[in-house]
Amino acid sequence: MRRFLARRLVVALALASCASGCSDAPSLVPVTGVMTLDGKPLAHKNIRFIPEPGTLGTGAGGDTYANGEYILLAVRPGAIQDAPGVPSGPYRVVITEPLIPVDDPIPQATGSDPAPAIGIPSSRPRQKQVPIPARYTKVETTPLRVEVPPDGGAIKLELNSQ
Fold first, then answer.
1. Nearest-CA neighbor of 86 among 52, 113, 59?
2. Which tens digit of pLDDT belongs to each residue from 6-15?
């Protein structure tokens, strides 16, 4: 009986210590910023921070708003939602078009009318999209390199079309 209680106590202590700091997930620091192309805000684009060798974690990403601002979110293994921030360290930055246009609002149902199906073209004219220079769209060719400091902060991403 004593041996059984001793084992339960050891298991309980091990679980408690693991819960308080036995995580493989690196700590995240908040990162926000503005992305511009030739000095003008680059709206509605997808940003990915790809970790350089030696940087912990799997990176982070986000979308730019109409004014070019962005907030990074990290995907954590086993998490049910993204977490704000990214581990500190060096990154390559890749810019791509979002899979779903972010300038279109999600259709809402009104009264008894069902919401229109996603993928049906809207009668509203779409905003003209500024193309991303091709060199920024692949991890192998992007010239964008950033260092996320240990406390995080604002990182301005300045792209140019030349």
1. 59
2. 444 444 444 4
HSE on the CB side for 31, CA within 13 Å? Answer: 32
Set out the domains of the chain in order of their start, with CATH numbers: 24-101+131-162 (2.60.40.1120)
Query: What pLDDT band is residue 102 in, cutting at 50, 70 and 90?
Result: low
Place of tokens 């500024």: 130
Measured distance CA(101)–CA(105) in Å, rounded: 9
Residue with tokens 């730019």: 64
Q: Residue 18 above 90 pLDDT?
A: no
Cα 59 from Cα 48, distance rounded (Å)? 7
Q: Are strands 153-154 and 31-37 parallel, antiparallel or unpaired?
A: parallel
Q: Which residue has the higher pLDDT, 79 or 155?
A: 155
Asked if residues 60 and 66 have their Cβ atoms less than 8 Å apart, the reply is no
If one compares 70 and 99, the residue with the highest pLDDT of the two is 70
Q: CA 103 → CA 8, 44, 67, 108, 123, distances in Å?
A: 56, 7, 12, 15, 14
